[in-house]
């Protein structure tokens, strides 16, 4: 019984101490109004300059491929949509196509690859619906489809951009960063390479 009384006495002493607004001379944190700051999607640089700015982070292979192909001007041309393969996507492409590295690709093969992911025209997610839209790439032998897919209610973006979500199109890819807006078009970043549908 004495043990229970001792525990109750200690508890009665400790509760006010821990409930104090000024514990050990430290004040409780004050409430503040959170100011939402969305990611800045528009930028004062071309698609090429953006990719160059990321070459030491996650776009080194794409940057090197553009330069090996002499395609800087293609990534500075107005009115295009660029499907940007980050290093994860590009590495996966090289592995799946049995290349030991970018240097093992012929220049013509690099150009064909890049042309397959440059779309004629600007396609922001606001221009898309859940019905896939056929778009024309710079590679005349390929075509691509863009669409939206509804996300769950907890997602910051209610829709994600999807590539080739049509029957028999090959691998369907979700865009990981959409609607980046360089001075010359729109960029959608992927971490898996889309397999395009042959015409």
Keywords:
alpha+beta; four-stranded mixed sheet; 199 residues
Structure description:
The protein is of the alpha+beta class. The chain contains 5 helices and 11 strands. The chain has helices at residues 2-19, 47-53, 60-69, 87-96, 107-116; strands spanning 22-23, 26-27, 80-85, 118-120, 133-136, 142-150, 159-163, 173-174, 177-180, 185-190, 197-198. Strands 5, 6, 7, 8 and 11 form a 5-stranded antiparallel beta sheet that branches. A 4-stranded mixed beta sheet has the order 4-3-10-9. A two-stranded antiparallel sheet has the order 1-2. Strand 9 and strand 10 form a beta hairpin. Helix 3 (60-69) crosses helix 5 (107-116). It is elongated, with a radius of gyration of 26 Å.
The total of helices stands at 5
Strand content: 15-25%
Ends distance: 87 Å
Structural class: alpha+beta
> Which parts are unreliable, with pLDDT below 50 for 5 consecutive residues or more?
34-39
Query: How many β-strand runs?
Result: 11
Order of helices and strands: HEEHHEHHEEEEEEEE
């Amino acid at each position: 019984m004495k043990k229970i009384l001792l525990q109750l006495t200690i508890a009665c002493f400790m509760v006010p101490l821990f409930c104090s607004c000024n514990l050990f001379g430290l004040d409780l944190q004050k409430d503040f109004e959170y100011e939402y700051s969305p990611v800045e999607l528009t930028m004062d640089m071309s698609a090429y300059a953006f990719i160059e700015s990321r070459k030491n982070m996650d776009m080194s292979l794409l940057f090197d491929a553009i330069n090996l192909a002499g395609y800087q001007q293609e990534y500075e041309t107005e009115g295009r949509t660029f499907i940007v393969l980050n290093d994860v996507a590009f590495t996966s492409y090289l592995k799946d196509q049995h290349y030991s590295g970018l240097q093992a690709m012929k220049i013509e093969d690099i150009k064909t690859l890049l042309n397959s992911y440059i779309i004629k025209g600007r396609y922001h997610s606001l221009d898309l619906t859940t019905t896939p839209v056929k778009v024309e790439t710079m590679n005349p032998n390929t075509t691509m489809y863009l669409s939206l897919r509804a996300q769950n209610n907890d997602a910051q973006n209610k829709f994600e951009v999807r590539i080739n979500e049509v029957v028999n199109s090959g691998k369907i890819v979700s865009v990981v960063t959409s609607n980046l807006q360089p001075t010359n078009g729109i960029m959608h970043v992927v971490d898996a390479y889309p397999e395009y549908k042959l015409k």
